[in-house]
Every structure is written in C-alpha cells, then in structure tokens.
Amino acid sequence: MDTHVVIMAGGIGSRLWPVSTPDMPKQFMDVLGVGKSLIQMTVERFGSICPMEKFWVVTSEKYVGIVKEQLPGIPADNILAEPEPRNTAPCIAYACWKIAKRHPDANIVVTPSDAVVFERQRFAEDISKALEFTENSGNIVTVGITPTRPETGYGYIHAENAVEGQICKVMKFKEKPDLQTARSYLASGGFFWNAGIFVWNVRTINAQLRKFAPQIAGIMDQLSESFYTANEKDELGRLFPQCEKISIDYAVMEKSEDIYLIPDNLGWSDLGSWGTVKEHVPVDSDANVAVGGDVRMFGCRNCIVHNDSKGIAVIEGLDGYIVAKKGDNILVCRLSEEQHIKEFSELKR
Amino acid sequence: MDTHVVIMAGGIGSRLWPVSTPDMPKQFMDVLGVGKSLIQMTVERFGSICPMEKFWVVTSEKYVGIVKEQLPGIPADNILAEPEPRNTAPCIAYACWKIAKRHPDANIVVTPSDAVVFERQRFAEDISKALEFTENSGNIVTVGITPTRPETGYGYIHAENAVEGQICKVMKFKEKPDLQTARSYLASGGFFWNAGIFVWNVRTINAQLRKFAPQIAGIMDQLSESFYTANEKDELGRLFPQCEKISIDYAVMEKSEDIYLIPDNLGWSDLGSWGTVKEHVPVDSDANVAVGGDVRMFGCRNCIVHNDSKGIAVIEGLDGYIVAKKGDNILVCRLSEEQHIKEFSELKR
C-alpha cells in the first residue's frame, strides 16, 4: 500500500482572534497549551500511517515558512503553496493531481490541520481500516464523529444502521443545520459530524473530480505538465486562481453515490471557537481554563484565559468570559457573545 | 529670589499595575493618554517658577536614564540618584543639603512627580504666593487640597478659618483617617488633603531636619563634604542607606510648630489608583474611559481601558472594570476590587 497524508493548512481561524490571526492562524498556534501547535499534533496523529516523506501540506504561500519551521521532517517539496485560497476542492485537487503524477496507486488521507482528536489509538485504527477498505474497493471513506450536542456549526453525514468503528454506506451529506434540525438528528440517531477527513485512492478522487468538478479537473490537467519542474510555481500562479471556489463537500461528496463512512466517538473537535477550546482543556474547581503563561484568576468562574507570553495576566471577578492575549492584541468577551469576535476584531475603531 | 524645584520621582506606583511597574513606574508613563508622562507634566506645571537649571530630580539609580530621556532640559548633575529608597525624609534632606551647599539662600518647592493639577494657573499663583511668604517669613508653607470626598488614602491637614488661596497657620497634620473620621473632616470643614507639596527656605528645612531628624541631618553633614566631587557617588552609596527610613510628614511636619498652609481647590489628584485615573479622563456616553491605542468597547459601561500599544483591545460586556495592558502583562479587575491589584500582581502563581 502506498499511503500518503495530505494536510490542509490554509485557513485563518478568525473566531479564535487574537490568538489566531491572518499572519499566524490557529493551526500554527499552541491553542491547547500543550507545547505543540495544532498542525504538529495533526502530524503526530498520523505518524503511524506512513513515513514523513509521504506527508503533504497544502497551505497559503505566506505560511510556507511557518510550516517548514514547525514541521522540519516534511520534505520542502511536499509543501504546496496555494497562490490564493479557493476553498477545499481546488486545494485537494492540486494535492491529488500532484501525488498521482508520481504515485499513481496512492491511497490518500486528507485531513484538516486545526482539529484535535483525543481518542488517538482508536482514530489510528479507524484510519487503517478505512485505508484497507479503500485499497480493496476503490471507494471513498470519510470519518463521521458521533455527535455529543446539537451543533449547528458542522455539516452532518447520514448513515443508517451505523455501528461505531464499522464501515457503512453514506446515505446523504447534510449542510450545517438549524438548531431544530440538529436536535432531530441527535434524537433520531444515524447522523454524524463531518470532520473533513477523507480516505480515498487517488484514481477514485480524481475521477470523481473529473465527473463532478470538470472545471477544476481541467485546470489540474493543464497544471500537471509543470508539476515537479521549475515552471510549476508560475503555472500555478496563473491557473490556480481560475479554479472554481468551492468546497469538496459541495463539489463531490454531496453528489457522489458511492461514499462510505466510518462513524466513531473519537473525542474530536475542530476547536473552531473559544467555547470549543474551553471544552477540551482541563478546568479547575471553578470551571476556569488557563492556557499559556502566568495566569492568575481571582473570584472567576467559567472563564477561559489564553496568555501567549511570559507576562502576567491578572483576571479578577469574571464569570463566563474569554480573555485572550497575543502579542499586542487583547480580547475580553463573554463566551455567550463569541460569535461576534470576528466582527469586533475587524471593525475599524 | 533664588527658587529651586525638587521633584521626587522614586516611587513605583504599584496600584497602577501593569501600566506602572518597578521597571517603569507611573511617573514616567502617559497615564492620562495626553502624550506626556506625569513627570513631564509636573515639570511643565512649574515652568514659570524658575529656569530648568534650577530643577532637581531625586530618583532611584535605575530611573536616572529614563529621567534624562524624558527631561533633557534638566542638567544631568541635577538628577540625584538614591542608592536605595529610604522614604521622603532622606530624599528631601539629600536634595536640600546639596542645594544649600551652592545656593545657601535658596527657596525650594518640593513636589511629587506623579500627581496632576488641573487648575494650573491657580496652582502657579498659589506657589508664587507661598514662595513670597517663605522668602519674607522663613516659614514652611504646604499646599492643601480642598477635599471632594471622604478619601481614606490621603493624609489631611487641619487649619481653622482657612480661606481658599490664602495662607493660614496649620493646626495639625493628620495621618490617613478611617472612613468615619474622613467623613467628619469633610462635614466640619477646615481639613485639606496633604498633597506632599512643600515650599520652604533651605535654611529652614535643614534646621528643622537637624532638630527633628538629627540622625538624617548628621549623615547629610558627613555626605556634604563630597557633594559636587568625584567621591559623591561612593559616599552616597555608603551613607545614604544608613538614613532612617521615614517620611517627611512623620519626621518634620507632624512635629514642627510653625507650618503654614495655602488651601485651594486645584483639581489635584495623586492618580494613585485606576479609579482616580478614571475620574480625570473624559468619559464617553457609557461612562467608559479609553486611554492609549485602538480600544474597541461593545456593551461596556463604567470601564477604564488602558492599552499601551499599537495593538487592538476588544472589550465586550463589562460593567465597572479596569482592563489594562502594558507589554506582556494584562489586568482585568473590577474597579471595586482595585485595592487588591498590588497583591494580585505580586503573588506567585
């Protein structure tokens, strides 16, 4: 089996401002305070799947330096730089076309760079199972996370008679639901969070893209001639921005008939907001979370404090707040208002 | 008249942490967000009293560089460095003994470096009046601030039949009172805040120190031989730390019989705490104060936010809080709990 791992690392994580910023987004930050960035934890998670020379990172040009620094084990030639963000379908197509040129039988695991999985052993087993299934059947497998709350921020995947850890057929990909719909998904069972983790053979995904996203596939065919040559960068700069801006879910997953699911309870989180970060870090007896440097809380409850520096953060008398500092920027905001953080940080004074 | 101004600038302003720190205390900071530090504002306030070569600053050795940088007009030789803090009596004695050696008839105004006076014109008139009185009578004059609230953080000066702007005899210096006593002072009238501003002839204060603080005076007599010589620094390092650690109020003012007061309503504040700073900066329609860089408040009331940097401070959903950032340190604290800030910032985690 010729297994490759493609890590998508082009996002900017604007809901975790000020720790995540367009110059240094969350996948490169130690969001959980464990001494490693999220992308470093992602690489570790797949460490048993294949050797480092088969890891690929697709990211924005401006993050290439950060990726090299944080992941020195990944060959520099495997760091693919998007000239501009075009959502996940062009990102995945670029990586898969490029891998196909030298590794035509590759089985590929695609993963985001900024999520966490706490059940690592079980996750590794599921990925191995999915790879074996893909190798034998040629079919696409995606990982579905057993939902723990009626989350409206994720897409869902519907599968009947699903058993945790066992591969089953996908009935339908569902877009982000409203709260009522999300509640009905939880009540009825058979619905799983779409974690954006896919396992496929390179021939299969490229064929599916050709079928359902011919505009992107056409551009990739053109680009392919320059792969691994001195012209690649120029050609990419010319052609990639012409790709349709579309997610892999819309472009392929929702249309394809033949997708399989491995549902499981993996302790997964996209860490998409301060509230979700708070859920994944141990709390003290007052339900507070402190990440980073010297954080001193007095009379606080239900707070998450993130201090990026060696400095002191003194926080007194808050209940249910986020306090985050990175460099010169600070945020103090109720957890209940965190959906506005992006807008607060972008507004001009 | 040979007038000199002595600015005491050795304090560390621990209640204004993190803006005031032992490395860069509040007198050197732009606490009000007006583009000048408090010590620069202090020098301006006395600008009409005497030329810059008659300004003296007594400070800690480690602040000498900051003083030179912030007050380039003051001769370097007039910046007196205390080897260690010994409270105000030794500080004042050193300055007065040194001035006396070359200016035996000097009239001296002593002032803290970290307070503000909003009635500057009136203040200058009062100081001129006090200097004239001292010149003619040889007596010590102190400035008393008409109290506006039963403040327990200041000492008081009692004078009967006091009229604002007119010199009268001091009956008694009073230490910081409890709240009930402070209220009775306000109710009865004739009590004024001790602003630590003194006007005296150098012969008078030195005689008073000789009488009431002979230990300190004796050390100053020894030191005096080295003044303005290459030995001064070494001698100071050897002798100054032996001085009794005592305030000028305890050492002289409370004991002396012959002190005069010029009471006035000068819009004075020692800016000793975030609450007092908030009172002296314009508030917006939600009673918020923002000092410094890019401060964005949403749904906040009665807050003071101090942002030292070019960074963004997003503050949401707070009522009655201090949020302060300087360098790597941040503080979020209820204004009602600000008396604990010193302890919060000193505690080990």
UniProtKB/TrEMBL annotation, chains A, B:
SUPFAM superfamilies: Guanosine diphospho-D-mannose pyrophosphorylase/mannose-6-phosphate isomerase linker domain, Nucleotide-diphospho-sugar transferases
Superkingdom assignment: Bacteria
Gene3D superfamilies hit by this protein: Spore Coat Polysaccharide Biosynthesis Protein SpsA, Chain A
Enzyme class, UniProt record, top EC level: transferase
A Gene Ontology biological process term: GDP-mannose biosynthetic process
Ranges for domain Nucleotidyl transferase: 5-275
Record key words, sorted: GTP-binding, Nucleotide-binding, Nucleotidyltransferase, Transferase
GO MF, one annotated term: mannose-1-phosphate guanylyltransferase (GTP) activity
InterPro entries cross-referenced by the UniProt entry: GMPP_N, Mannose-6P_isomerase_type2, NTP_transferase_dom, Nucleotide-diphossugar_trans
Enzymatic reactions: alpha-D-mannose 1-phosphate + GTP + H(+) = GDP-alpha-D-mannose + diphosphate
Protein EC: 2.7.7.13
Family stated for the protein in its record: Belongs to the mannose-6-phosphate isomerase type 2 family.
Annotated protein name in UniProt: mannose-1-phosphate guanylyltransferase
Organism in which the protein naturally occurs: Candidatus Cryptobacteroides faecigallinarum
